Amino acid sequence: MKYDVEILDESVLSEHFFTLKQYKVKHSSFLEGDCPAVVRERLEGKTAVSILLFDPCKDAIVCVEQFRIGLMGVADRSWSIETVSGFCDVAHEKPQEVAAREVTEETGCDLQDLIEVGEFFVSPGGSTERITVFVGCVDSSKVSGVHGLAQEGEEIRPVVIPREAALSQLFRELNSTSIIIALQWLQINLDELNQRWL
Fold first, then answer.
1. pLDDT band for position 152 (cuts 50, 70, 90)
2. Does residue 101 sit in the same domain as residue 185?
3. Cys-Cys with 86: which of 69, 102, 105, 161 at CB 3.0–4.6 Å?
4. Catalytic-role residue among 15, 82, 152, 164
5. Is residue 152 annotated as part of the catalytic site, yes or no?
6. 22 SS3 class
Protein backbone atom coordinates (compact mmCIF):
# COMPACT_ATOMS: atom_id res chain seq x y z
CA MET A 1 0.00 0.00 0.00
CA LYS A 2 1.27 3.48 -0.89
CA TYR A 3 -0.39 5.48 1.95
CA ASP A 4 -1.16 8.35 -0.45
CA VAL A 5 -3.60 11.18 0.26
CA GLU A 6 -4.93 13.62 -2.33
CA ILE A 7 -6.74 16.79 -1.25
CA LEU A 8 -9.54 17.41 -3.74
CA ASP A 9 -10.98 20.49 -2.02
CA GLU A 10 -10.52 22.47 1.20
CA SER A 11 -12.24 25.43 2.82
CA VAL A 12 -12.08 27.37 6.10
CA LEU A 13 -15.33 27.03 8.06
CA SER A 14 -14.32 29.10 11.09
CA GLU A 15 -11.28 31.06 12.29
CA HIS A 16 -11.35 32.08 15.94
CA PHE A 17 -9.56 30.44 18.89
CA PHE A 18 -9.01 27.43 16.61
CA THR A 19 -9.31 27.16 12.85
CA LEU A 20 -11.91 24.68 11.58
CA LYS A 21 -11.33 23.49 8.02
CA GLN A 22 -13.26 21.14 5.79
CA TYR A 23 -11.44 18.79 3.43
CA LYS A 24 -12.52 16.56 0.60
CA VAL A 25 -9.87 13.86 0.29
CA LYS A 26 -9.14 10.62 -1.49
CA HIS A 27 -6.70 8.17 0.10
CA SER A 28 -5.12 4.78 -0.52
CA SER A 29 -7.12 1.65 0.26
CA PHE A 30 -5.87 -1.39 2.21
CA LEU A 31 -7.50 -3.53 -0.48
CA GLU A 32 -6.26 -1.87 -3.68
CA GLY A 33 -6.39 1.49 -5.44
CA ASP A 34 -8.12 4.33 -3.60
CA CYS A 35 -11.09 4.61 -1.27
CA PRO A 36 -14.01 6.78 -2.44
CA ALA A 37 -13.59 10.49 -1.68
CA VAL A 38 -14.72 11.59 1.79
CA VAL A 39 -15.48 14.96 3.37
CA ARG A 40 -14.04 15.59 6.85
CA GLU A 41 -13.75 18.56 9.19
CA ARG A 42 -10.49 19.13 11.07
CA LEU A 43 -9.55 21.46 13.93
CA GLU A 44 -6.24 23.05 13.00
CA GLY A 45 -4.80 23.46 16.48
CA LYS A 46 -1.49 24.66 17.70
CA THR A 47 1.25 22.64 19.30
CA ALA A 48 0.94 22.69 23.10
CA VAL A 49 2.83 21.71 26.23
CA SER A 50 1.51 20.01 29.35
CA ILE A 51 3.45 19.92 32.61
CA LEU A 52 2.71 17.71 35.61
CA LEU A 53 4.38 19.29 38.63
CA PHE A 54 5.75 17.04 41.37
CA ASP A 55 7.04 17.93 44.82
CA PRO A 56 9.18 14.93 45.88
CA CYS A 57 9.65 16.24 49.42
CA LYS A 58 5.89 16.20 50.06
CA ASP A 59 5.12 13.34 47.62
CA ALA A 60 2.45 15.53 46.04
CA ILE A 61 1.54 16.86 42.63
CA VAL A 62 0.54 20.40 41.72
CA CYS A 63 -2.34 20.74 39.27
CA VAL A 64 -4.51 23.62 38.13
CA GLU A 65 -8.27 23.98 38.19
CA GLN A 66 -10.04 26.05 35.55
CA PHE A 67 -13.21 26.36 33.49
CA ARG A 68 -13.19 24.23 30.31
CA ILE A 69 -15.75 24.80 27.53
CA GLY A 70 -15.46 21.18 26.40
CA LEU A 71 -16.93 19.98 29.71
CA MET A 72 -19.93 22.30 29.63
CA GLY A 73 -23.14 20.28 29.50
CA VAL A 74 -21.38 16.89 29.29
CA ALA A 75 -19.73 16.56 32.73
CA ASP A 76 -20.93 17.11 36.29
CA ARG A 77 -19.12 20.43 36.33
CA SER A 78 -17.40 22.59 33.76
CA TRP A 79 -14.16 22.95 35.73
CA SER A 80 -11.27 20.57 35.23
CA ILE A 81 -8.32 19.68 37.47
CA GLU A 82 -5.44 19.12 35.09
CA THR A 83 -1.79 19.70 34.31
CA VAL A 84 -0.34 23.14 33.66
CA SER A 85 -0.56 23.74 29.90
CA GLY A 86 -0.13 26.28 27.15
CA PHE A 87 0.19 26.75 23.42
CA CYS A 88 3.53 27.12 21.62
CA ASP A 89 4.42 29.61 18.95
CA VAL A 90 6.55 26.97 17.21
CA ALA A 91 8.30 29.53 15.00
CA HIS A 92 9.68 31.41 18.02
CA GLU A 93 9.54 29.23 21.14
CA LYS A 94 10.89 25.87 22.25
CA PRO A 95 8.48 23.65 24.22
CA GLN A 96 10.78 23.84 27.29
CA GLU A 97 10.58 27.65 27.24
CA VAL A 98 6.79 27.57 27.05
CA ALA A 99 6.67 25.04 29.89
CA ALA A 100 8.76 27.24 32.20
CA ARG A 101 6.66 30.32 31.40
CA GLU A 102 3.33 28.52 31.90
CA VAL A 103 4.37 27.05 35.26
CA THR A 104 5.06 30.56 36.58
CA GLU A 105 1.92 32.08 35.02
CA GLU A 106 -0.47 29.37 36.22
CA THR A 107 0.92 28.40 39.64
CA GLY A 108 3.43 31.01 40.83
CA CYS A 109 5.95 28.19 41.39
CA ASP A 110 9.57 28.22 40.28
CA LEU A 111 10.45 25.26 38.07
CA GLN A 112 13.48 23.51 39.58
CA ASP A 113 13.90 20.81 36.92
CA LEU A 114 12.04 19.62 33.84
CA ILE A 115 11.95 16.22 32.13
CA GLU A 116 10.35 15.63 28.72
CA VAL A 117 8.08 12.57 28.70
CA GLY A 118 7.09 12.64 25.01
CA GLU A 119 4.73 14.04 22.41
CA PHE A 120 1.31 12.72 21.36
CA PHE A 121 -1.57 13.58 19.02
CA VAL A 122 -4.64 14.62 21.03
CA SER A 123 -7.38 13.37 18.70
CA PRO A 124 -6.14 12.48 15.21
CA GLY A 125 -9.65 11.63 14.03
CA GLY A 126 -10.42 15.35 13.79
CA SER A 127 -7.56 17.54 15.04
CA THR A 128 -3.94 18.38 14.25
CA GLU A 129 -3.16 19.30 17.87
CA ARG A 130 -0.07 17.75 19.45
CA ILE A 131 1.01 17.99 23.06
CA THR A 132 4.50 17.61 24.49
CA VAL A 133 4.23 16.25 28.05
CA PHE A 134 6.73 17.16 30.75
CA VAL A 135 7.13 16.35 34.44
CA GLY A 136 8.63 19.18 36.49
CA CYS A 137 10.01 19.48 40.01
CA VAL A 138 8.62 22.25 42.25
CA ASP A 139 8.26 23.26 45.89
CA SER A 140 4.51 23.02 46.47
CA SER A 141 4.67 25.23 49.58
CA LYS A 142 4.76 28.19 47.15
CA VAL A 143 1.28 27.35 45.80
CA SER A 144 -1.41 29.92 46.60
CA GLY A 145 -3.85 32.36 45.05
CA VAL A 146 -5.50 32.56 41.65
CA HIS A 147 -3.39 32.92 38.52
CA GLY A 148 -3.61 33.26 34.73
CA LEU A 149 -3.56 36.10 32.24
CA ALA A 150 -6.59 38.39 32.39
CA GLN A 151 -6.14 39.38 28.73
CA GLU A 152 -6.56 35.69 27.79
CA GLY A 153 -9.66 35.30 29.99
CA GLU A 154 -7.82 32.94 32.33
CA GLU A 155 -8.76 32.32 35.96
CA ILE A 156 -6.65 29.43 37.23
CA ARG A 157 -6.45 28.01 40.75
CA PRO A 158 -3.44 25.80 41.56
CA VAL A 159 -4.15 22.82 43.81
CA VAL A 160 -1.83 20.44 45.65
CA ILE A 161 -2.86 16.77 45.74
CA PRO A 162 -1.01 13.92 47.49
CA ARG A 163 0.34 11.59 44.80
CA GLU A 164 -1.48 8.49 46.10
CA ALA A 165 -4.77 10.39 46.29
CA ALA A 166 -4.25 11.66 42.74
CA LEU A 167 -3.71 8.11 41.45
CA SER A 168 -7.01 7.04 42.98
CA GLN A 169 -8.77 9.87 41.09
CA LEU A 170 -7.57 8.90 37.58
CA PHE A 171 -10.56 8.59 35.21
CA ARG A 172 -12.68 10.24 37.92
CA GLU A 173 -11.89 13.77 39.03
CA LEU A 174 -8.58 13.69 37.11
CA ASN A 175 -9.91 12.82 33.68
CA SER A 176 -8.07 14.56 30.85
CA THR A 177 -5.51 12.97 28.55
CA SER A 178 -2.41 14.84 29.70
CA ILE A 179 -2.83 14.21 33.41
CA ILE A 180 -3.66 10.54 32.83
CA ILE A 181 -0.52 10.07 30.72
CA ALA A 182 1.78 12.15 32.94
CA LEU A 183 0.63 10.76 36.27
CA GLN A 184 1.03 7.16 35.11
CA TRP A 185 4.52 8.02 33.78
CA LEU A 186 5.34 9.61 37.13
CA GLN A 187 4.26 6.47 38.97
CA ILE A 188 6.32 4.19 36.72
CA ASN A 189 9.41 6.40 37.08
CA LEU A 190 8.94 7.45 40.72
CA ASP A 191 12.09 5.82 42.13
CA GLU A 192 14.28 7.37 39.45
CA LEU A 193 12.72 10.81 39.98
CA ASN A 194 13.15 10.63 43.75
CA GLN A 195 16.82 9.72 43.28
CA ARG A 196 17.25 12.72 40.99
CA TRP A 197 15.26 15.27 43.00
CA LEU A 198 15.63 14.32 46.68
1. confident
2. yes
3. 102
4. 152
5. yes
6. strand
